[in-house]
Design goal:
mainly alpha; DNA polymerase, domain 1; two-stranded antiparallel sheet; 5 strands
C-alpha cells in the first residue's frame, strides 16, 4: 500500500515551512551585522508585504519586475511617504544581497525616493516647561533627559547605571546611531530625580536577585566573555520595565528596559494636556535641546558632538551654515538632529 506523501518535505508545497527558513536566514544575516532588533522587525515587515503582494511567491522566484511593481504600488496606490518607500527598498536590497545571496545589478539602479526637506519642530523654553509640568515619575525624568542631554529616545531607554557620572555631570551614550559612543551633559536639575530613580532600581534589582533573577541582556558577545556581568549593578538599566519577560533571543527571563511606546505615549499625552498645538514627539525634545544651545551661544561643532553627529551640514531654512558662536534664533536655529 502506498504511503501518503508528506507535503512538508517539499518546499514548493509548504509555504509556511519555506517562510520559516527565510525568517531564520534573515535573522542570522541581521545579527551577524549587528543590526538592531527594530531594524530586523522593520525589514521582515516589508519582506512579508512584498511576498503577499505577489501572491505568496517566494522572493527567490522573483526579480526586477516584481520589485519595481511593488515599489511603484507603494508610491502610487498607497501614497506612502518617501522615507517609507526607501525603507521598503532597503529591506528588499538586504534580502536579495545578504539573505538570498543574489547579485542583482538592477537593484543598484533603483532610484530612492527623494525625501522632502522639512523644518524640525522646535518647542520654546516655556513650552518645554509646560510639557514637563504635565508629566510625572519616570516618564518625566526620561523626557527631561531627552531635552537636557539631547538623547535619542532609544539612547535614553538603553542607559545603564554605569553610564551616569554624577561627579563629572555627564552621560555616556554607548553604541549610539552608527555604532558610536559619545559623552553629553547631565543637567544639574535632574541629578536629585536621577539619584532617586537609581535608588528604586537598586531595590528592584536586589529583589530580582533574591528571587533568582536579576540578569539583564548584554550587548554583542559580552555575556559569553563575562558570564556574570549581566547580574552586576552597573549593567542594570536606568529605566527598567515593570515586569520581567522572556528574551526573544534565547527565552531567558530578564528585566528589559521600558518599552519605547510607553515613553512616546506619555510625551504625546503631556503635549495635549499642556495645550501645545505643535506636533510633539520624543525627538522634538532633542531638536529643542540643539536649538536652545545655539540660542545660548554654543558653537555648532560643540552641539554636534553633544548630539553625536559627524556631519558638518546643518539644515536651516536658508540652507546655509550657521557661523560659530553666533546667537541664533527662530528658524535660523533649526537644525537636523536625527
Amino acid at each position: 500500500m502506498d504511503q501518503p506523501s508528506d507535503s512538508s518535505e517539499n518546499p514548493a508545497q509548504s509555504p509556511d515551512k519555506r517562510e520559516k527558513r527565510l525568517v531564520e536566514r534573515l535573522h542570522e544575516a541581521i545579527r551577524s551585522r549587528n543590526y538592531s532588533r527594530r531594524t530586523e522587525q522593520s525589514y521582515w515587515y516589508w519582506i512579508r508585504r512584498f511576498i503577499f503582494f505577489h501572491g505568496k511567491r517566494h522572493p527567490g522566484e522573483m526579480g526586477a519586475p516584481e520589485v519595481t511593481a511593488f515599489l511603484s504600488w507603494l508610491a502610487t496606490e498607497r501614497n506612502v511617504a518617501a522615507a517609507t518607500q526607501n525603507q521598503a527598498l532597503s529591506a528588499l536590497l538586504f534580502l536579495y544581497k545578504h539573505v538570498l545571496g543574489k547579485e542583482l545589478p538592477w537593484m543598484n539602479d533603483v532610484v530612492h525616493a527623494k525625501r522632502p526637506v522639512r523644518l524640525p519642530v522646535v518647542l520654546t523654553r516655556e513650552e518645554v516647561a509646560r510639557l514637563l509640568d504635565c508629566m510625572s515619575g519616570g516618564a518625566k525624568l526620561m523626557a527631561g533627559l531627552l531635552y537636557g542631554a539631547g538623547l535619542r529616545q532609544i539612547e535614553c531607554l538603553q542607559l545603564r547605571v554605569k553610564d551616569i557620572d554624577f561627579a563629572y555631570r555627564q552621560v555616556t551614550v554607548r553604541d549610539g546611531k552608527g555604532g558610536k559612543d559619545r559623552v553629553t551633559m547631565l543637567p544639574g536639575e535632574l541629578v536629585p530625580s536621577l539619584q532617586r530613580q537609581l535608588g528604586k532600581v537598586r531595590a528592584l534589582h536586589k529583589r530580582d536577585l533574591a528571587e533568582g533573577y536579576g540578569e539583564v541582556s548584554l550587548p554583542h558577545a559580552l555575556a559569553r566573555k563575562y558570564p556574570r556581568a549581566g547580574h552586576e549593578w552597573g549593567w542594570q538599566f536606568v529605566f527598567p520595565s515593570g515586569n520581567r519577560s522572556a528574551d526573544p533571543e534565547n527565552g531567558v527571563i530578564r528585566r528589559h528596559h521600558v518599552h519605547p511606546d510607553t515613553l512616546g505615549r506619555a510625551v504625546k499625552a503631556a503635549a495635549r494636556a499642556a495645550r501645545i498645538v505643535k506636533p510633539v514627539s520624543c525627538h522634538t525634545l532633542r531638536h529643542s535641546f540643539a536649538t536652545h544651545l545655539l540660542e545660548g551661544g554654543y558653537d555648532i561643532r560643540t552641539v554636534q558632538e553633544l548630539l553625536g553627529r559627524s556631519s558638518k551640514s546643518w539644515t536651516r531654512s536658508d540652507r546655509s551654515p550657521l557661523p560659530p558662536r553666533r546667537r541664533a534664533g527662530g528658524a535660523s536655529a533649526s537644525c537636523t538632529t536625527s
